[in-house]
């Protein structure tokens, strides 16, 4: 007889049978011990997305190059936009970064869809940040908007890369624990 909580699972003779219980060795929610039998199999990977180690095809390489060019353009536009209209321009520049990173992740289905434009954006922004002319002109002024754009862009890239890895691993959405 098997108890419903799994705490005292015994075989037919009333004594423990070294894992050969009447319920086939499956563990229940409360037991936490014993062997686990898959109930529906492993979660299926999301359809429509390539595997994590997907091979490089000419189309994917072209998409990465396109993402790299768009990242440089978004970095230039965001640099000018966040300084032009402070609260709204900063939010618009960060929204452009969300679109770039999330769109790159969805378009390629790999982590490279976030990492390639993220690295291109970061290098472009830091090159623009370090470029000071002899007259004293530079694109990033000392202010809250510049730091918000730099830090916000890095945070957005990390969030999009992490979300893409969870989606590629097949982590189900919804509540944890049923």
TrEMBL record:
Residues 1-53 are annotated as: Disordered. It holds the Pfam family DUF6113. Residues 1-16 have a biased composition (Gly residues). The keyword Membrane applies. The chain crosses the membrane at residues 61-78, 84-102, 114-132, 144-163. This is Integral membrane protein. Residues 30-42 have a biased composition (Low complexity). Keywords: Membrane, Transmembrane, Transmembrane helix.
């Amino acid at each position: 007889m098997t108890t419903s909580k799994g705490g005292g699972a015994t075989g037919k003779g009333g004594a423990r049978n070294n894992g050969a219980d009447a319920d086939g060795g499956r563990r229940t929610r409360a037991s936490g011990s014993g062997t686990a039998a898959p109930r529906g199999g492993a979660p299926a990977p999301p359809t429509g997305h390539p595997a994590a180690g997907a091979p490089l095809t000419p189309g994917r390489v072209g998409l990465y190059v396109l993402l790299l060019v768009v990242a440089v353009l978004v970095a230039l536009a965001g640099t000018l936009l966040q300084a032009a209209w402070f609260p709204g321009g900063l939010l618009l520049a960060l929204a452009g970064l969300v679109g770039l990173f999330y769109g790159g992740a969805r378009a390629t289905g790999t982590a490279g869809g976030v990492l390639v434009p993220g690295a291109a954006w970061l290098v472009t922004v830091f090159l623009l940040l370090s470029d000071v002319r002899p007259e004293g002109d530079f694109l990033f002024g000392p202010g809250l908007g510049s730091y918000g754009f730099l830090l916000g862009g890095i945070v957005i890239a990390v969030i999009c890369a992490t979300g893409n890895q969870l989606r590629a691993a097949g982590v189900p959405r919804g509540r944890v624990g049923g």
